[in-house]
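fyi for ur records
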Amino acid sequence: SFLPAQLETPQPSHDTIQKIQNQLSSEFINNVFHNGVLNKTLSALDELPSGVRLDERTCKSLSEREFADSFEALNAVYSEKYYNLEVAPDTAISRSLQFLFFSSLEQGPAIIASPNVTVNIGDRASLSLIESYEGQEDARYFVNSQFDLNIAESAKVSHVRVQTESKRAIN
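which gave:
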């Protein structure tokens, strides 16, 4: 059975930090999530250019929300926080934005991580997004991510999703 990842997830171990850092490139602006929670220490939030803002928000109560499907509802049950990236109109981002979701078992035998990210891209903005899922080798975990893109009609976006997770992971 899987247990929900803690909302205030413990800091990753030294070995996990090394594995995460091996996945980061200075060519990207890295936003690192460990077990579904933004890790501000490993992220390069100070490198976000003018016109780009990443906010952490508290989810509305479940009774106030409507869900498109059961996975979205499951994500809401296990995540009290969500992250909102706003790209202002006319903003051109030269470096790719990477969202790295790394799962490890600092918390026990198996976890459910439920990261929830919404990216709002304004008129005439342009950027490249990399959505990466990585994990501790041979770990059992379930990632039920919600990664929503809201793209203005005249915006230019390149989006790539990479999954190189544990063979025992469910995503």
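The chain has a mean pLDDT of 86. thats all i got for now
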